[in-house]
Write a structure and sequence with these properties.
By secondary structure, this protein is mainly alpha-helical. The protein is built from 13 helices and no strands.
Amino acid sequence: MKREDHFRLLASVALIDGHLDASEKERLIALARLMALRPNKALAILKELGKGAKLTGLKIPKRRVLRLALFQDLVLLAAQDGEIVPQEKAFLVKLAPHFGIELTELERLLETSLAAIKTGQYSSPIPTDEAGNLPEVLREAHAAGDGEARARFALRLLRDGEPLPERELPLFLRLADRQRVDEVGVAALLAEPIGTAPQDPLSPRDQRDGTKAFGAIAGLLRLRDLVEGEEDFLARLAAPFCVGRVLLRRTLRVYVPSSQ
């Protein structure tokens, strides 16, 4: 999902009750900045939605992991300054039901997001000795011990039962190169049967480990620049790990200064 569509979807949910007060509008504009969306573009989108513009082809994803990744952007927005004030929490409480998130889960998500902001640790290498009883997506990420296994798992997440879009093939080749998989190895991976991605969603308490796992699977330690469309590509790969667009951009700044 492109950043404009991403923002349009989140803004439409915020407007679902037909009301957007000044503080909520301010938070959405701040979110747009974090997503590298110009404020005037964000304001134009809000104006369109406020006039009753219909979303075309956009809806809250059915898969819970994707819904949680979207909602996480709103939580990270509230947590940016290291605290979540009552007005910000009220805004999140208002939106949470539309993403299928219960209040108790929201509380845990707020806690872990604040911890992530304060520590600043978003993509350290995935540990190899803490697999335990992790959710399936993290367990498989831990089990992918070498570059080829990680590229294979990334491809499985990106395909999720469907062929890889042709426009994403060059981007997958870049990912495979970061994982030190040669052309012959890439061709073999692409020829393998298409499998489905793990369906078990991550809980908020697994958020930080999910970010580390994504960093390892995407080969972020060897990422030095971004090409056209790569941020959207990485956002799609990041979603199963409970990494939304805002947290992704914070992570990319560590490796690609020009991505700000």
